[in-house]
Amino acid sequence: MEDIIRLDSIDQYNKLYGLETDHPLVAVIDLRKAARDLPPHCTINYGLYALFLKQVKCGDIMYGRQPYDYQEGTVTSFAPGQVVSVRRNPDVKLMDVQGLLFHPDIIRGTSLGQEIRRYSFFSYSSNEALHLSEDEKQLFKDCLEKIRQEISRPVDKHSKRLIAMNIELLLDYCMRFYDRQFITRSEVNRGILVRFDELLDEYFQSGMSESEGLPTVKYFADKVCLSPNYFGDLIKKESGKTAQEHIQRKIIDIAKDRMIGSDKTVSQIAYELGFQYSQHFSRLFKKLTGTTPMEYRRPD
Asked: Which of 10, 92, 274, 293 could bridge to 266 as Cys pair (CB 3.0-4.6 Å)?
């Protein structure tokens, strides 16, 4: 039976590996210095934010049912509330892993605390780890060193803000690196965009909208084995529109065809498209076309 490990504090994490705790809310970790290791199989329930630069493939990480796509020189990231299964490779003796852990309290009341949801990569899951070049790895380590230096200083009235600013700098670099990764994987991404359009057509042509309701971004993300956040970011970067905008545009296109090509009422068309209430459909139609469904249908 797998061990279940809850990590709600920095000290819990450090004790797990036999490391010293320099700050109660932030840790820059280097597992090459660890005195202990995880059990061979375990499940970790994170109560912290974490980013790890792994220089060696030290085992398998499962987020939900999907494996993390990581190898040497990749960054994996986790947020409070995420549960991860770990199977350690017994042949790897040196855990060449460096990273950052921080408790939500360290960013509470700071600009980073207000913007933390912007860093959507914390919710990426399968096939979505960040693969770094040598220069990017060095930048990552430089940011860690700045944070380490700050948490090693005596605490003063500037400490929390400076620590949060340096964490934010690291997260901004990771956002930049992910943008670069989206570009370098553009051919694969275009294939996912094409598949998204196909799945949209299938959803409405099969009548699923009538039985299951309006499609969600999560539905399509699951179909292409991506997390909703990664899928949404990929679609936005590849097309300039959000996944939700693609869904809404498809709904309106189909609605226009059905209003012109059939005698069905607006309420019937709205129901077939997955709306519980026709006024919600009419509101979306007016928002995206500038006219109501009845005005669109009315002959000049």
From this structure: 293
Burial letters 271-292, b for 16+ CB under 10 A, else e: bbbbbeebeebbebbeeeeeee
12 and 62 in contact (C-beta within 8 Å)? no
Residue 100 belongs to what H/E stretch?
Answer: strand 97-102
Task: Give CA–CA dist 170/75, Å, rounded.
Answer: 12
Assigned token pair, 291? 């006219």
Report which of 190, 293, 193, 219 is spatially closest to residue 251, judged by C-alpha positions.
293
DSSP assignment letter at 31: G
Mean pLDDT to the nearest integer, 22-48: 87
Given the DSSP bridges, would you call strands 49-54 and 83-88 parallel, antiparallel or unpaired? unpaired
Token pair for 134: 């040598």
pLDDT per residue as tens digits for the range 89-141: 666 566 788 999 999 999 999 999 999 989 988 877 545 778 888 999 999 99
Strands 3-7 and 74-78: unpaired
Q: What is the DSSP string of 104-171?
A: GGGTTTSHHHHHGGG-GGGG--TT-PEEPPHHHHHHHHHHHHHHHHHHHSPP-TTHHHHHHHHHHHHH
Residue, of 276 and 298, whose pLDDT is higher: 276
CA 177, CA 299: separation in Å to the nearest integer?
A: 52
Can you name the residues that pair with 62 across neighbouring β-strands? Answer: 67, 85
129-171: pLDDT as tens digits: 788 889 999 999 999 999 999 999 998 999 999 999 999 999 9
* The overall pTM is greater than 0.85: no
